[in-house]
From TrEMBL, chain A:
Keywords: Oxidoreductase, Signal. This is Gluconate 2-dehydrogenase gamma chain. Residues 1-22 form the signal peptide. It comes from the Bacteria. It is an enzyme of class 1 (oxidoreductase). InterPro entries: Gluconate_2DH_su3. Its EC number is 1.1.99.3. Coiled coil: none annotated. It holds the Pfam family Gluconate_2-dh3. It comes from Methylorubrum thiocyanatum.
Automatic annotation (TrEMBL), chain B:
It comes from the Bacteria. Transmembrane segments: none annotated. Residues 449-568 form the Glucose-methanol-choline oxidoreductase C-terminal domain. Belongs to the GMC oxidoreductase family. It comes from Methylorubrum thiocyanatum. Its EC number is 1.1.99.3. GO terms for molecular function: flavin adenine dinucleotide binding; gluconate 2-dehydrogenase (acceptor) activity. This is Gluconate 2-dehydrogenase alpha chain. Residues 230-332 form the Glucose-methanol-choline oxidoreductase N-terminal domain. It is an enzyme of class 1 (oxidoreductase). Keywords: FAD, Flavoprotein, Oxidoreductase. It holds the Pfam family GMC_oxred_C. SUPFAM superfamilies: FAD-linked reductases, C-terminal domain, FAD/NAD(P)-binding domain. The lineage of its organism: Bacteria, Pseudomonadati, Pseudomonadota, Alphaproteobacteria, Hyphomicrobiales.
């Protein structure tokens, strides 16, 4: 990618104020009354996938349910909206690694030098899920989503330990990617499609997007029974 | 052929704390100033009001306010025999990318360094002898002392609206403040922030062990405040969204809140946004700069002529600009000669993770700098006789606001990272788990340095900066002491589980987010053979180039850098206005 392409790619990034005009600013604050730069969100409707195929979504949903199982603390990751969250993220700038340095040769380095992979998150899911499906069908005769939970856990553990060979995709890197994204879908503001009914914030006792704690900061060491608040309540 | 702007008195590269403070001083003195900022204009009411600010995924996890590595990153290796590779994803260089720079998203810990931190060489030799230095360590005095800087620290604290309590007022030690600090001429402009369950537990435990806890000076306003420039700030609401976030409440000490609104009213100031400076241009004799070359958002190249050039980008970017502009002699690791890229330092971090049993720490309540600390083992505040190292750390707990995604791996060792066991453990740790943080001194070493990468380039086709770094023996020894002290305090606090942590047990990595404080590489000093800048942060070689920021630090203290960065900027501004404008040339003979 050249400079122009990288900057064009960045332009779609939420939070990057690339819509602002480059300008020589002088003599006053260039303030636009009534404007707030909320993140632009894809709106695929409740059930439409924008990145995953149906089979990919089933596999990711099954993994989300093993990473965040339904139990007495919360609903499972799939019901919490993790698949919808990840689907949206992968369709956007995050999926194509818009913020990452992608120039020059990709050379394997030391652990301290971090991941040196040409795969963007969306590539890692697409290629990795296909390789995982091949592995599960060869080893168990069915795809990941159809395996019994105990078998699903074993596959995830092997990926986590780096003992599973998925060919072009590093299984450990793929596991870390999925773990991070499922957690994000479970724990981020519902604005992004996951954390349905603030389920994880209720579990943790996290009050959410509160603006002012001055009336409770002196209640030290006490259980504070906040009803969590989402950004949705504030922006939409 | 580049397009040429009308000449100005001074051009400022990067409009963060350094750039805005310098611009305020120079425009008030009547100079015409143009600042060139890589990122866009941002505005509290538009970009991060309370309806937008409290979004962990966007600002913290996805780092939406930082300069993306896609645009510029560094390459990294632990030692000179390795091939450096680019840090491709978010890492410890948390470079600002907007008007306000890193000062917009910083946590707000607004420290003064100790007198020792500016004179580590002479004070160590005097107290212990030169044998105290481990092999290869680079230790040198800054050429500026704490007493020189005191009036400028005072001015910075008042501009920023810092909340704190003096521990040494004109030589009188005051309990409850930091009794180890250098003598202050005045109190903080605002009283300390409120305390929390966590800071209370820390203060009680450390005091009972005979140490001297105090509340960390905070760049969050504990009450409504009007600064000396006439800018008004609102009281902090303890929402906990500070570090990586903009403040939606005009309560965080940022250039945007404290300085920029005043600059924008001045007719002799303007800022060019979304424009990247590539280099300073030198006159044919190489002794002065004629201005800078920059690229605007439409990829158009411009020249901005100026009589004074100020580099006030982030520390690493300042060093890179020096190298790309060919100002000063680059450091040669093989011979040990040269100064630009030499004397890089970081932060030595160790401490303890602590887990209580039935607490409600409510750590989502907080502020970026709402912290309690002891300085009993910082700098040279304790006797190092027989200890075979120098330095130490501030030991603190932070109530900076805990959020769900960022804490998901903060668990007792051995806990599964997924499944029902993870959910249960995380729910417990979210209220009961926290850490004691030893933020340690870092001294430069001959084997740690910055230069231009021979292979990897930025989006303009210019070489990335290459960092060669690993912890040194002095770091490991000081970190061990601090780790032990942190464990002692954690146990005294009543934690059920105390787990020692020590970053120096591994090789350093840009992804080990122990700290984002990177320093040095274009340091100030008394000798042009060992410093790129004189004591006024003026280039020894090109007298109309001034370089501001932590790039000037020959060593890092056991603190956060911003207060010292601000004070040094104001110290340099005074030298420019009172001396340099009348007599253009080196402020110190070389």
């Amino acid at each position: 990618m050249n400079r122009r392409q990288i900057l064009a790619s960045m332009a779609a990034l939420a939070g990057n104020a690339s819509t602002a005009q480059a300008a020589e600013l002088s003599g006053e604050m260039p303030w636009e009354p009534g404007q707030a730069k909320v993140p632009p969100l894809p709106d695929p409707g409740p059930d439409r996938l924008v990145f995953f195929t149906l089979a990919e979504a089933e596999a990711v949903g099954a993994m989300a349910d093993r990473i965040i199982p339904a139990d007495d603390l919360s609903v499972g990751g799939k019901e919490a909206g993790c698949v919808r969250f990840i689907d949206r993220e992968l369709a956007g700038p995050y999926g194509r690694a818009a913020t990452q340095y992608r120039l020059g040769r990709f050379v394997k380095g030391t652990p301290e030098q971090g991941i040196q992979s040409p795969l963007a998150p969306a590539d890692r899911y697409r290629l990795g899920l296909a390789a995982l499906d091949r592995h599960c069908r060869a080893a168990h005769g069915k795809g990941y989503a159809a395996l019994p939970p105990a078998e699903q856990d074993k596959v995830l553990s092997a990926m986590e330990a780096g003992t599973l060979d998925l060919g072009v995709v590093d299984a450990k890197e793929m596991f870390e990617q999925i773990l991070q994204n499922v957690r994000e879908g479970f724990l981020a503001d519902p604005l992004y499609g996951g954390n349905k009914d603030l389920v994880s914030w209720r579990m943790l006792g996290f009050p959410g997007a509160q603006y002012d704690f001055r009336d409770v900061i002196d209640l030290k060491g006490k259980k504070l029974d906040f009803v969590p608040v989402s950004m949705i309540d504030k922006t939409l | 052929m580049a397009n040429v702007h009308p000449k100005v008195d001074a051009v400022i590269v990067g409009l963060g704390w350094c750039g805005s403070l310098m611009a305020e001083e120079l425009t008030r003195a009547g100079l015409t100033v143009v600042a060139i900022e890589r990122g866009p204009w941002v505005e509290t009411a538009v970009d991060f009001p309370p309806s937008v600010d409290m979004d962990e995924l966007r600002w913290d996890t996805r780092r939406a306010m930082l300069l993306p590595p896609a645009i510029e990153t560094i390459t990294f290796r632990n030692d000179p025999t390795q091939k450096a590779l680019p840090a491709r994803d978010w890492h410890f260089n948390e470079w600002g990318y907007n008007v306000g720079g890193s000062g917009t998203h910083w946590a707000g810990m607004a420290w003064r360094f100790l007198p020792f931190d500016f004179q580590p060489y002479s004070m160590t030799v005097e107290r212990y002898g030169a044998a105290q230095f481990v092999d290869g360590l680079i230790v040198q005095d800054w050429g500026v002392t704490y007493d020189d800087l005191e009036p400028f620290y005072d001015r910075f604290e008042k501009i920023a609206g810092v909340s704190g309590k003096a521990g040494n007022l004109k030589g009188e030690k005051i309990p409850g403040g930091n009794i180890f600090e250098g003598a202050r001429s005045d109190e903080y402009p605002l009283p300390p922030l409120k305390t929390t369950r966590l800071t209370d537990l820390f203060c009680e435990a450390s005091a009972s062990l005979g140490y001297h806890p105090f509340m960390v000076p905070a760049g969050q306003t504990s009450a409504a405040y009007t600064n000396p420039l006439g800018v008004r700030m609102g009281p902090c609401t303890y929402c906990g969204y500070c570090m990586y976030y903009g403040c939606g409440n005009w309560s965080k000490s940022t250039p945007n809140n404290c300085v920029v609104p005043v600059l924008m009213q001045r007719k002799n100031f303007s800022v060019l946004t979304e424009s990247t400076v590539l280099r300073a241009n030198l006159a044919p004799d190489g002794k002065t700069a004629t201005g800078v070359t920059y690229v605007d958002k439409d990829n158009k190249t411009w020249e901005q002529p100026a009589d004074i050039v100020v580099f006030s980008a982030f520390q690493m970017q300042n060093v890179r600009l020096m190298l790309l502009s060919k100002i000063g002699k680059p450091y040669d690791h093989a011979t040990g000669e040269g100064v630009v890229g030499r004397a890089y330092s970081f932060q030595t971090v160790s401490g303890a993770n602590i887990f209580f049993e039935n607490e409600y720490l409510n750590q989502f309540i907080g502020a970026g700098a709402l912290s309690a600390q002891i300085d009993d083992f910082n700098g040279d505040n304790f006797d190092h006789t027989g200890m075979d190292f120098i330095g130490g750390a501030g030991i603190l707990v932070v109530s900076r606001g805990a959020r769900p995604i960022g804490n998901a791996d903060f668990l007792p060792p051995g806990t599964p990272r997924w499944g029902s066991e993870w959910k249960k453990a995380y729910t417990h740790s979210f209220q009961n788990g926290t850490f004691i943080f030893g933020q340690g001194t870092s001294f430069a070493h001959k084997d740690a340095y910055l230069d231009l990468d021979p292979e990897y380039k930025d989006i303009h086709g210019l070489p990335l900066l290459r960092l060669t770094y690993d912890y040194n023996e002095n770091d490991r020894r000081s970190a061990k002491l601090i780790e032990d002290k942190s464990v002692e305090i954690g146990k005294k606090m009543g934690a059920k589980l105390v787990v020692a942590t020590n970053a120096t047990n591994q090789h350093a990595s840009p992804y080990q987010l122990a700290s984002d404080h990177t320093n040095g590489g274009a340091v100030m000093g008394l000798d042009p053979k060992t410093s790129a800048l004189n004591r006024f942060q003026q280039s020894w070689d090109v007298h109309n180039v001034f370089v501001l920021g932590a790039s000037s630090f020959p060593n890092n203290a056991g603190y956060n850098p911003t207060g010292t960065v601000g004070a040094l900027t104001l110290w340099t501004a005074k030298a420019i206005i009172e001396t340099y404008l009348d007599k253009r040339g080196p402020l110190v003979a070389n």
